[in-house]
Amino acid sequence: MEGAVLCPANHAPLTPISFLERAALVYADRLAVLASAGVARTWRETRARCLRVAAAVAGLGVQRHDVVAVFSQNIPAVCELHFGIPMAGAVICTLNSRLDAAMASVLLRHSEAKVIFVDRALLGVARKALGLVSEAGARLPVLVLISELLDDEPSPPDAKLQITGADFEYEALLGSAGSSPDFEIRWPADENEPIALNYTSGTTSRPKGVIYSHRGAYLSSLVSVLLNGMAATPVYLWTVPMFHCNGWCLVWGVAAQGGTNVCVRRVTAASIFDGVARHGVTHMGGAPTVLSMIVNATADERRLLPGGRKVTVMVGGAPPPPQVLFQMEELGFLVIHSYGLTETYGPATVCTWKPEWDALPAEERARIKSRQGLHHLGLEADVKDPATMRSVPADGRTVGEVMLRGNTVMSGYYKDIRATAEALASGWFRSGDLAVREEDGYIKVRDRSKDIIISGGENISTIEVEATLFSHPAVEEAAVVGQPDEYWGETPCAFVKLRRGYLQYTVYTHTGHGSIIK
């Protein structure tokens, strides 16, 4: 239109870094981070530390768009790294804290991470992984040890760094002469520049690196705030792994609202009730396993919610069982059911609740809440016939594939142009999940066309499990499928044919056990 211009006065690249800048001004003296061992920092202090992180990362030779890995549990440093690494112009890559050394080494080589920040609790796995990286002839990243306190244990002195094999220690690095709170932020010149790299196993054992942009992260953070009903200054308990979709983008979203991050290493019923009672937690989230922890808490672990108020819990993954939803309501927790993928920055749809449903019987309320619902404000969602790309009718019977498009869909797969083209074909992201639309338009997922098991909110590749089984000399044939589990949502179930001469024995896994029979 005549007279309209695009200029710095009316356009700036969107980036969640701006959330920290505003929080440090508007909420300067409010608590930003709380954790055990006496960690309590304001937003003013957090911003200064994040700038020191950025200066330190830049001082290690990291350039724009270089990848910096983080291998850690949910500790305060990870909140800082989510801002400090992008402020240096780099790309944060949070690795699953459950990884073994072999897979961690694969991801480090694929990402070509220049630096890796390692939680003290995971140092043993990280060192083995780096050994495998070295054996493969790849360049080793600089290792920065985060010696965050483990319960009441003292932090190791700098003199022990040589023993641990770390190049630097986190706090010492932030206190060094090259780490300055006056660092000049490397703002993105284009909001579509990468801010994060998240790995998902996808449908095969070959990992895929999902690229997030500054723009997508900014919008997804605000969407997550809206989906969770977060008013100003929420108190968020970190029961969602920060490595998973950057904590569903709420590491950035909490800053947008000047909230408080309550960090816990081990998610247990006791830590949840304690965090709610001590810190006035207003919001939390996680897989159905988190709900199971809460409803199965012992009398000693449970505490009444302060003032009779409710705590909002966003749950993703498998639909929570109706009985669990009933018990959560009785305990004072408001459950919001969402659905999404790593490729959609976390939540993509939400079962938006309607007031008229409150009067329905409990069983019907639970059935409604178990649906995946409708798309949020950042994208579009549809259920289509993948052959014709036509929307399926809202009859609750016709099955199609869930497809999504919009501003909170990934930029693509790192170093995989072919997989990116396939996933984004026809202008939609192909989720691979099969669903129906009910009469009110709400989506209900029926099955997954991808061979993936969702256990504890995380994806397990059946091919990876089968490959592990095949490595055993007793196994001749193996096939893995998912089976329902009250605690994990799903666990792998293996059907195995043994080689001659081997007797029945039992295999135990971290999610359960099963028998291998002749």
Automatic annotation (TrEMBL):
InterPro entries: AMP-bd_C, AMP-bd_C_sf, AMP-binding_CS, AMP-dep_synth/lig_dom, ANL_N_sf. This is 4-coumarate--CoA ligase. Its cofactor is Mg(2+). Its EC number is 6.2.1.12. Residues 464-502 form the AMP-binding enzyme C-terminal domain. Belongs to the ATP-dependent AMP-binding enzyme family. The keyword Cell membrane does not apply. The keyword Ligase applies. Keywords: Ligase, Magnesium. One of its GO terms (molecular function) is trans-cinnamate-CoA ligase activity. GO terms for biological process: phenylpropanoid metabolic process. The lineage of its organism: Eukaryota, Viridiplantae, Streptophyta, Embryophyta, Tracheophyta. SUPFAM superfamilies: Acetyl-CoA synthetase-like (SSF56801). It is an enzyme of class 6 (ligase). It comes from the Eukaryota. It catalyses: (E)-4-coumarate + ATP + H(+) = (E)-4-coumaroyl-AMP + diphosphate; (E)-4-coumaroyl-AMP + CoA = (E)-4-coumaroyl-CoA + AMP + H(+); (E)-4-coumarate + ATP + CoA = (E)-4-coumaroyl-CoA + AMP + diphosphate. Residues 20-414 form the AMP-dependent synthetase/ligase domain.
